[in-house]
Amino acid sequence: MSERLQAPRGTFDVLPEQSALRAQVEEVARRVLESAGYRRIETPAFEDTDVFRRAVGASTDIVQKEMYTFEDAGGRSLTLRPEVTAPIVRAYLEHGMHKLAQPVKLWYLSSCFRYERAQAGRYRQFWQIGAEALGSDDAAVDAESILLLHTILAELGVAGMRLRIASLGTPASRAHYRELLQDHLRRHEDELAAEVRERIDLNPLRAFDSDHPGTRTVMAKAPVLMDHLDDADRDHFASVLGMLEAAHIPYEVDGTLVRGLDYYTRTVFEFTSDALGAQSGVGGGGRYDGLAEQLGGSPVCGMGWAAGVERMLLAAEHLPVPEPICDLYVAMAQGTPAERVQAFALAAEARSAGVPTQLELAGRSLKGQFKQADRCGAAYVAILGPEGIELKDMQTGAQESLDTSAAVVAHVLRGRHADA
């Protein structure tokens, strides 16, 4: 016997009982985002590799270590998307969305792929819900974006939710701070992790993300970017915070907050959950006003976020599993060929009328069929037999004889309307 195959390490199957919970996450996100004017977009699962090399940053762990990159039969370098913001900006540019009323507000539910150590809530294939607003530098865009993610997480019942927020300034205002930070890191180079030393020139801000004890000690005394913003950056950040306060959203300003992607400017934020332990991040994002230019387009302001579906479900501890809907279960008294055809026709007619209907498909006894109807949560059971059709109300136990399939469907529909 050959070895039984399993899903690749770091991936997982979404089983039916889990799919119902994930559908709730999607439904909440769709309702919250589309009510605010965001429209659904989906980009390809793989992109030209340069989309991520240019956008995410050559010095990031994502580009250096985590991307699934391959060469196709035509010799082109392609990459499974590790994140979705860069592909959406590419689509915005490619399809001329600058001609639309700005900002263009988009949301997505997409799978992403990163080669990293698999652990609870962190997988090599994972799903993200995200929102992007392109074409405006107004601080209200930042505040609205944060408010929408806060609303989604709150409606899902994410436990112990906290918002950390900071400003990275613009590239121009960040240049002087970058030199100060590089000088600080070089003075303590012997105390830093090897990967932090290697990135002092490329991306010194990522040192704030390091878990290395020596690096953390050094960074505790490092200059903080928030102390080196210019007046325009400070005013923009103050406007964002003022709007969050007006919406009664609590926050913590954290000058050490650094997102893992190089394209962020000004506002950055992250929602965490105490229910997730060390890997506490649920979702976050920020502003990326220079990203379109990095992808070869004209300047376009942007703001967005992404939240992991798996992490939201882990943090939403009490999200109820919805009960399956079955208004009618079609059973057979004897299971004769004639009954089977009649049962199939009744199920088809009921479904055409919008009645959630299940049909006996396993050859059970009549007693077994009633047990299966209970498992399905059926409101009614139609029993087809030589004498006609008996319809049983599973809640009251009442049973009556009906002449036609149409009468069964009509009775069930009346019952649904009465319950509603």
From TrEMBL:
Name of this protein: histidine--tRNA ligase
Domain Aminoacyl-transfer RNA synthetases class-II family profile: 1-324
Family under the similarity heading: Belongs to the class-II aminoacyl-tRNA synthetase family.
Gene Ontology BP term (one): histidyl-tRNA aminoacylation
Stored Pfam families: HGTP_anticodon, tRNA-synt_His
MF terms in GO: ATP binding; histidine-tRNA ligase activity
Source organism of the structure: freshwater metagenome
One GO CC term on file: cytoplasm
Top-tier EC class: ligase
